[in-house]
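DATA SHEET
Item: assembly model
Revision: 1
Owner: S.N.
Input lines:
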Amino acid sequence: MSATLKRSTNATLEVEGLRVSFGGMEAVRGIDLSVERGETHCLVGESGCGKSASALAIMGLLPGGARRSVRRLGFAGDEIGKLSERRMARLRGDRIGMIFQDPMTSLNPAYTIGSQMTEVLRRHRGLARDKAAERAVAMLDRVGVTAPGMRLGQFPHQLSGGLRQRVMIAMALLCEPTLLIADEPTTALDVTVQAQTLRLLAELQRELGLAVLLITHDLGVVARVAHRVSVMYAGEIVEQATTEALFAAPTHPYTRGLLDAIPVPGKVRRGDKLGSIPGIVPRIPAGFVGCAFRDRCAFAEPVCASNIPPQFASPDHAYRCRMAPDWWRATA
Amino acid sequence: MRTRQIPLLVGAVIVGVTALVALAAPLLVPHDPFAQNLAQRYISPAWMAGGSSEHWFGTDGLGRDYLSRLILGARISMLIGVATIILSGTIGTVLGVLGGYFGGKVDAFVMFIVSCRLAIPLILVALTVVFMVGSSLTVVVLTIGLLLWERFAVVSRAVTRQVCGLDYVAAAWAAGCSRLWIITREVLPNIVHHLVVIATVDMAIAILLEASLSFLGLGVPPPLPSWGLMIAEGKDYMYFKPWVIEIPGIALAVLVLGINLLGDGLRDSLGANTDR
Amino acid sequence: MVCLTVLILSFGLSRASGNLAISIAGADASAEDIAKINHELGLDRPLPVQFVDWANRAAHGDFGESFLFHEKVSSLIEEHLPVTITLGLIAIAVAVVVAVPFGILAALYEGTYIDVAVGVVALAGQAIPSFWLGLMLILWFGVGLQWLPIAGLDDWTGYILPSIVLAFVAIPVMLRMTRSGMVDAMRSDYVRTARAKGLARISIVAKHALRNAAMPVVAVSAVQLGFILGGSVVTEVVFNIRGVGYLAWESIGKGDFPVIQAVVLLFSIIFVGLTLLSDLVGAALDPRLRGR
Amino acid sequence: MAELIAAANLTKHYPTSRTTRQMLRGERPVVRAVDGIDLVIQRGESVGLVGESGSGKTTVGRLLLKLTEASGGTLNFDGAAVSGLSGDSLRRFRQQAQLVFQNPFDSVNPRFTIRRAVAEPLINTGVPRAERDGRIAEAMRLVHLGDFHRYADKHPSELSGGQLQRVVLARALVGRPSFLVADEPVSMLDVSVRAGILNLMRELRDRLGLTALYISHDLTLVRYVCERTLVMYLGRIVEDGPTSEVISRPAHPYTQALIKAVPRPRTDQSREDLPISGGLANAVSPPSGCRLRDRCPYAFARCAQEVPALLEVAPGHRAACHLTSPANAAAA
């Protein structure tokens, strides 16, 4: 969907033609997206759609055995797709921060919070131990961790899940990055803690002018925090729009299916049947052509087996389907 | 994928061939392994100077054909290996599954027995028992089998606990299945691949242990040709004829390596990680 | 608790055959001789009485007198133990020094020929019977090259071959533990976090991964020291070293039960102690277990 | 309607690991997973049980099915004390009361074929072999796996999560139970599959007249299937009432927070602060009095001194909060 995404040239992150493959299977099949300063871009999709692989690929953190290719990977005006691992490591943790799904396993159980936080500053800023500790305390305080001085001496297992995720967020923001990539940051948390954490992320973003790429499976989270949304299915972005546009007029049959499947108070009444999508997410082999959703789609036609170019429902709203922009108004 | 299967294949071939040789030993031996001929002591193997094709692997200090004794030795090693793991596997699995399934006091008791067993110096006690009861193949099998079950117990306890935490066991329980039913239908089939891996590990250990006991003179009694005993018998002559210890030693190492490779390959292909 | 059971076991073990006196006096001794020996040794008393008496004295370090050497068992052991312990400690040190670096190497190059080679060497090491390895080393370095003595511990060179053989008991296990621990650690979420923080590779490996991988290895080395000591019988016989293992082997061959009892008990206590040490070390290293 | 399940002061305490000091003092700390709940479920009623992880909701489900033994209190099933069941009466109870789990991949024995897995409850309740195939086919039809023979001889690893969850449901239904506990039956499933299972659950409720307890952390899911909802917090029931009532007029601050916390897939949702802060307190030493008081903005002196009782706030709607108790309501 590159046509729409040439919105501005000064986006913090610009991705064009990102592909990731594991063995013979394609996990990510040429996605384009951009995140601007002060913007939260949500990459949403079900398990196995390639959203986490995309995030790791952007960070250069794919596990061994995965292959990445990318036409353009721009970060703050620089091309970083061809950087060596050593140069990339200098960017990570410094100008690009990342947080992960499970704050329990993502923190090293053998070291204190303080040790794990200060090493970031010592590495990227060359700060002395005590200066680094000062910064760490200030950052913990900023993300709402109570008694931050005491936390530095604690081990991850001594903190609750919500606190651990706050520590992860603080750690990712220590060097004041311009881009934050968050991979399912609240999935492992309880709903009340999730709400607090999402709120914190939104606050921090506004305050620091961060560009945030947020990976989630939960359209509710998207609606709550995103400015722009990319819906992924089977390694492709099938719909990309501003959050308002997407929720006002979801156009791709997959997006519509997903939204119909969620019971929303006031929208779905008792006794209504929830929509559901038949079948399962397919695994896509190399060289696959056409719409990957066609086997599960009620509107599939023979033409769906050929290459489907993106269409626009509005200047800010692209989708990859043969259907006309307002096809669903007729059926609704 | 293919290359990862090579060790499994090599191991399976080594163990398979040894097992076949062990089974068919009486048919395969070129000479009577017990027939002494003092006129033909320490004849070198065929490929060395002074060797003859009459005795491919030469003869030992009593003029017995070394190849024949080696073949019969394979039978003893395999017998020891298989018999002890059947015995120790049964003891260990029963203890481990009971401890893992019931937990609580039963588990505490099982762990107590296991830690008692771990506190026993294996070789010393085996030596003492064999010395007191008198050495015979049966005694060696029983001794090793009764001493070597702790790995089975520890592993089967751990994996039983793990399996019992899974919902399908709770589902069977909720469906009104009896304990015996759950243990035999739900638990055992799902831990058996771990047990197979342990069986190979313990089989290797049992074979090495028997060799050590025989080497120390308190294992399989002469004139039976245990490989360990053959090394012990050749020990005093090794400075002059190194091959008398080299041949049975290599046989022993290759068989144990084969079993280990098989176990490793099975571990990988069955997805049973027991390294920890 | 475990100690008590082992105490009973080691006592029962040596009394199980019943014919102690015969084995001391020889098969052709007269009934009178046997009765006399039985009485001298207190063997004509009821078993529980004998046990309590023996256990009571054992607790005070008195294991009676050797039938064979006519010396106090405790002084026999005192004489033989230092050699065995020294060898064991050298061997476990050798094992750690060999196993840990190669385990790390194999993990970092997981799936490459380096990993395969290390794995095969470890498997082969596990397959070689230690007594045979000892003999072969004697043949090569003692007889062939004449670099090292073939038996005894007259000077430090005498320690080299036996400790290599003993270390072989522990190397494969520790190697595999290090490797699998490192592989798990390198794939873990916290190492991914460390990479996401942009840390240098050396600090990812040496700080984040190694610490977690090393915790179980260090803890298990205490248990492995126990196995090494247990394996000292064979090695000491091969190298003709007068340690506790050799003493035990000699005593078993001659039916010298007070010594056997004492050595079995000694080893058991050492094993239990080392297991305890292993738990403590594990707990001290792992912050999650600390303060429990 | 007749009572099918009646629990009074039902309690489950799990022992925890002790520190050395506690051992020396002879203290035996316990996790108060379920701490004295009263619960009545009428025949044919669908009840939702909502709470976060650690609230004890799963333990309640297990207690009702006699999968764990209660530490205290009484539990009657169809008029008979569950604790007294053994032998044949226990087997009959096991056939009457069934369970559906959260993770479908863990709840079918990987060594069994689907046919064998579904047949298990029949084998154990002595249904003759000749009848079994018919019963299995009937159960599979109920869960819309009608072309049973396509699945019968497959192993669990060959099925998708949604299909497996249907198999689990079929296994629960094959013995024609009267009571079903479903523990987070859709939380492991992707959104598109989730809706199918929810629809199925509702359909089964209407068709079979099952009495059911649905355990979930998401009030909206419960709302979709259940007419009555219970909310649990730290081992106690804090609110109980008709689902629509609980959602539209939540009486307890915790329920209010839960409803606000779940993000909805619509852009007009409120993003205001949650009424409660922090995370779940420790179930070994919970706060005295009301257990929410350390997170509750309205907490006052009485909350620390007195455990609030579950009192009626509207007909059929009860809450355990001093704010809504008649004494305070009168004062206010």
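QC remark: Chain B touches chain D at residues 166-168, 170-178, 181, 185-186, 189-190 (CB under 8 Å).
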